[in-house]
């Protein structure tokens, strides 16, 4: 089968439904906000090279979270330093005074990273936009928060209605600090959150704090009124060999976050190797959308690349599931994926399902048996293997033949287990050029993995005819919805 894609750059083609930058280097998503009918995505960007350099905020926007329009760079480095990660708020009431009454500004709150004579200082600064996020002016009073620390970054800001104040969470070494403000310019320290189980030397990055209402109950029906606060952050150790994204569930009283996550319980947002620095969208009504960098610092700067390096995860909608007396986040691809997914009349060739060579979403119904099932995405030469046991709830993704071994042998195969999955018979795969995102159960287990196959996958091999599957072309124009939604109860 000829899989030559006309847009191919060498053997590395752009993903179909995942954001990639026009050129240059990308890492964390920044300033995620829905405004003026668009989902804005600002991002850590180095336009002049394929590795992390002097950071800017790149900018793109989308109406459907699938198709992205590139826009001019939003923030350039300046005399206070490079522009590291941060967030964006809509200052509707013009509390900052950057706008006018009736025309509140969008305000970016970001980290200025300054390196001078071997010393690093990170401080928080502001920039504002009066044209819906297209162009920005930096605040003349920058920085607005500067205790002179080295690891003090990634502010995520939101408006807390009960207190009538802006709240900022940011990472400070091995802790998350919380500040508040009435005008975004003057910040008052409120509290510090520590997990109590930090490893020596680990650093926290990119925190987020937001409320959610639990969806369902294992043991009791919830009233739907109860609010649970979720604190997320990314963790990395200095040699970058280990990183992950953690979350805690608890309460927030406008000043401090109190974890209700049982001690010793480590909640991880993504069980794969390629998901980091996620944050959620601001200003979206009635759903919480999360997007992360689809990568891992351990090898991010050495991944195969031609014109650009780095992609974002596919945006996910979060749900909070009650699990006994505890809570767990479930994640699904945002519904826009399904809205624009055309059912693909895939043919079976023995145990192989023929793939279209384009991004696709595969939904599987597995038999519930104590056996390990094996699935394989292949182009006839190389394959990405997935092994699943619905009884022991063990999962293995083996990319040995489709991932550069010189990036580190430890990254070739991911084995993991999540005992809390309630419907392990349900497995969904979002397969795009260079990545697979696996959503297991009701989305309680998500696993993101990059791959670099020489040619597009042409077959999905199932080890048994009993496995029921449906296939959808992701990002296709078809408007017919899959019958079965991921949110089945
Ligand atoms: C996370 C991170 C942030 C920082 C940014 C710099 O990946 O290290 O903590 O602001 O990247 O690009």
UniProtKB/TrEMBL annotation:
Family under the similarity heading: Belongs to the glycosyl hydrolase 32 family.
Keyword annotations from UniProtKB, A to Z: Glycosidase, Hydrolase
GO CC terms, sorted: cytoplasm
Domain called Glycosyl hydrolase family 32 C-terminal: residue spans: 359-456
InterPro entries: ConA-like_dom_sf (IPR013320), Glyco_hydro_32 (IPR001362), Glyco_hydro_32_AS (IPR018053), Glyco_hydro_32_C (IPR013189), Glyco_hydro_32_N (IPR013148), Glyco_hydro_beta-prop_sf (IPR023296)
Protein name (database record): Glycoside hydrolase family 32 protein
One record GO biological process: sucrose catabolic process
């Amino acid at each position: 089968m000829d899989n030559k894609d006309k847009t191919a750059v060498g053997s590395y083609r752009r993903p179909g439904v995942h954001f990639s930058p026009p050129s240059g280097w990308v890492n964390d998503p920044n300033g995620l906000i829905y405004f003026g009918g668009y989902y804005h995505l600002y991002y850590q960007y180095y336009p002049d090279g394929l590795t992390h350099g002097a950071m800017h905020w790149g900018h793109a926007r989308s109406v459907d979270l699938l198709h992205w329009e590139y826009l001019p760079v939003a923030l350039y480095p300046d005399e206070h330093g490079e522009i590291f990660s941060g967030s964006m708020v809509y200052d509707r009431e013009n509390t900052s005074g950057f706008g006018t009454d009736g025309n509140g500004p969008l305000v970016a709150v970001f980290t200025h990273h300054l390196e001078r004579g071997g010393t690093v200082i990170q401080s928080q600064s502001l920039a504002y936009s009066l044209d819906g996020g297209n162009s920005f002016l930096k605040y003349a009073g920058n920085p607005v928060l500067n205790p002179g620390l080295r690891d003090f970054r990634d502010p995520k800001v939101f408006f807390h209605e009960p207190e009538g104040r802006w709240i900022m969470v940011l990472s400070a070494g091995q802790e998350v600090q919380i500040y508040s403000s009435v005008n975004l310019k003057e910040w008052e320290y409120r509290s510090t959150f520590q997990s109590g189980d930090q490893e020596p030397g680990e650093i926290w990055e990119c925190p987020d704090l937001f409320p959610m209402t639990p969806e369902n109950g294992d043991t009791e029906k919830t009233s739907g009124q109860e609010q649970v606060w979720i604190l997320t952050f990314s963790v990395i150790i200095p040699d970058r060999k280990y990183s992950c994204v953690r979350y805690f569930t608890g309460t927030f009283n406008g000043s401090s976050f109190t974890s209700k996550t049982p001690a010793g319980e480590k909640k991880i947002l993504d069980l794969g190797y390629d998901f980091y620095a996620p944050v959620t969208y601001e200003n979206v009504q009635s759903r919480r959308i999360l997007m992360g960098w689809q990568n891992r610092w351990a090898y991010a700067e050495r991944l195969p690349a031609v014109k650009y390096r780095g992609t974002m995860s596919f945006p996910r909608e979060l749900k909070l599931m009650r699990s006994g007396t505890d809570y767990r986040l479930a994640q699904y691809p945002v519904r826009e994926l399904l809205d624009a997914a055309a059912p693909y009349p895939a043919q079976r060739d023995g145990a192989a399902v023929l793939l279209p060579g384009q991004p696709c979403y595969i939904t599987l119904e597995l038999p519930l048996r104590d056996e390990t099932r094996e699935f394989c995405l292949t182009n006839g030469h190389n394959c990405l293997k997935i092994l699943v046991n619905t009884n022991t709830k063990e999962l293995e993704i083996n990319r040995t033949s489709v991932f550069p071994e010189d990036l580190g042998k430890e990254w070739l195969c991911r084995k993991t287990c999540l005992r809390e999955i309630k419907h392990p018979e349900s497995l969904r795969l979002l397969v795009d050029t260079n990545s697979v995102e696996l959503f297991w159960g009701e989305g309680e287990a998500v696993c993101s993995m990059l791959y670099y196959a020489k040619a597009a996958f042409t077959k999905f091999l199932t080890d048994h005819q009993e496995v029921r599957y449906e296939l959808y072309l992701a990002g296709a124009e078809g408007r017919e919805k899959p019958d079965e939604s991921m949110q089945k109860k």
